[in-house]
Amino acid sequence: MDTNSNRPERPKKVQNAVTILYVTLGIGIVRAVMEASANAEMAGVGFLMFVTLVVFAVMVFLIAMIGRGRNWARITLLVFFLLGLPLSILPLIRSFTNSPISGVLGLAQVILQIVAIVFLFQQEASAWFKPKPAAT
Description:
Blueprint: H1 12-38, H2 45-67, H3 71-98, H4 100-120, H5 123-129
Helix pairs in contact: 1-2, 1-4, 2-3, 3-4
């Protein structure tokens, strides 16, 4: 069982990682709007927007759970990031070609996500995420 009753205060690394992850989410929203307006005539843009909203909802949930000290959430975020990174390289390159501003924002988003994940897996943060035995 994962409880916070015996958990010490959230380490600064985790606070910073959560903040950075919310910033990357904001960048992602800006990019999604930019990309949607640039590709408004493209067929299937409605479906892409739906998928984008689902992804953002999942990210908000994971970030919130990370902030609450749920170890499974930080691991899930890492797995999603590692699985999604290779799939995002080509679209990121296309973003630089189609809209350099979107490309720069996308690159910033990836770099900030890497920084946040590194923070979440440093020793201080990892110790905080481990469940503490209940006091008897």
